[in-house]
From TrEMBL:
It comes from Spheniscus mendiculus (Galapagos penguin). The gene is Echdc2. The lineage of its organism: Eukaryota, Metazoa, Chordata, Craniata, Vertebrata. One of its GO terms (biological process) is fatty acid beta-oxidation. The keyword Cell membrane does not apply. Belongs to the enoyl-CoA hydratase/isomerase family. One of its GO terms (molecular function) is enoyl-CoA hydratase activity. The keyword Lyase applies. This is Enoyl-CoA hydratase domain-containing protein 2, mitochondrial. PROSITE patterns: ENOYL_COA_HYDRATASE (PS00166). It comes from the Eukaryota. One of its GO terms (cellular component) is mitochondrion. Keywords: Lyase.
Amino acid sequence: LRFDEKIRVVVFKSEVKGVFCAGADLKERAKMDDAEVGHFVKRLRNLMDEIAALPVPTIAAIDGYALGGGLELALACDLRVAASSAKMGLIETTRGLLPGAGGTQRLPRCVGIGLAKELIFTGRQIDGQQAFSMGLVNHTVPQNSEGDAAYQRALTLAKEILPQAPFAVKMGKLAINRGMEVDIASGMAIEGMCYAQNIPTRDRQEGMAAFREKRPPQFIGK
């Protein structure tokens, strides 16, 4: 996906009805020694980092349970859509653990330090509406009879992104992600570098021409 220039948006959904991702298999984990557990969690953390680093926008469609590593997967995505009946939580402390695949870092960046600490310290599970009210998800929708309401809403959101200039969207994502990790002056410099890369693109020229000619732009990603 990283190197396929035809990809504009990636949507993460589950084929298991009622479950987005239930996290690690604790029965499997119980068979591992301490070294194996450490290696397993490091690989999982690296996977989440790879997902977060995808150059195109990513959307998690949460149509059921997203617990532990499952919520960490959703947090590694740029955008999240949840059914109102979905259940989410970093429940690791209820099992004698702490989030180890990015949850302690991405949740506070998403909802703020105070709420993140409360959710992690208590291991509380929240539904889609609660998640929306605290900014954990971008949209919440009533579940439908097929059990894929969040996925359908995620597709609608993806279709809003698709017509936009692909390279500009990629640079926007890069500028936001890198800029959030530094002071604002450094962030402005990052934005300037990303903008400079976008200036010579054919899509920028097409966007300007389409505006002048009062027609929809036809972006090609170059």
